[in-house]
Design goal:
209 residues; alpha/beta; Rossmann fold; 23% helix; binds adenosine-5'-diphosphate; binds magnesium ion
Length: 209
Amino acid sequence: MTDTGRLTVIAGPMFSGKSEELMRRVRRATIAEIDVLVVSHSLDTRSDISTITSHTGVNIPAVPLGDVSSIAEAARQKDYDLIAIDEAQFFGPELIPTVDEFLHQGIGVIVEGLCVTFDGQPFEPLPSFMAVAEEVLRLTAVCTVCGKDAVFHQRLEQTESQIDSNSATSAQAPASTLAATAIDASHIGGLDTYVARCRQHFTGGSQEA
Ligand code: ADP
Ligand code: MG
C-alpha cells in the first residue's frame, strides 16, 4: 500500500509572505531533487503568466492553470512527488477532493492561498484544508496603519472612504459590487488595490464590528 502524501497549508491575508514561503519550499524541494509541479492560477496576470511572483517581484516558474481538472490532468503527465498550488482560493472548494486524491496517491501537496476575503470572511477552500493538514503555516502581514500583525486585507477604496471619514474603527464599509469570493481578476492586486490591516484598523467588513 502506498504511503499517503503530506498536506501543508500556507495561509494568510495578502502581503503576508505566502508566495515567498511557497517559493522557498519549492526551491528546497528542487535542491533535494524532488519532482515538483508548481501551479499558479491563470487569472493571476500580475507578471509573466508562467511564474509565481511575490509582491517583491521575486518569481519562480509555474504552470498556469484555470481549473481543478487541469491540475489533475497536469499531475498525470509525470510521476510528481510534490504539487505546490499558489492562490489556491481561486480554484474553489472543488480543489478539496482532487487534493485528497493526490494525497492518497502518495503525492505531497502544498496549498497556499488567502484564508480570508477582503470583507473579512473565511475564504474556502483554505479553512477546510487547514482543518485536515499535517502542517499549517498561518502568516500575518504588517498593518499599514499601526504596524501590528495584520490578519486582514481590504480594498483601497474602502480604506480611503473610511479614513476620510476619520472613523476607521467604527464606520460601516461601503457596499462592494464585487463578491468577496468571486473568481475575478480584480481580486488580484498589489499595494495599489489592497492594504493589510490588523483587527483594530480593518474597516472592510460587510457587517459593522
Ligand atoms: P502574499 O503572497 O502573501 O500576498 P508575498 O509573498 O507576495 O505575499 O509578498 C510578501 C512581501 O510583501 C513582504 O516580504 C514585503 O516585502 C512585502 N510587503 C508589502 N506590504 C506589506 C505589508 N503591509 N506587510 C507585509 N509585507 C508587505
Ligand atoms: Mg501570493
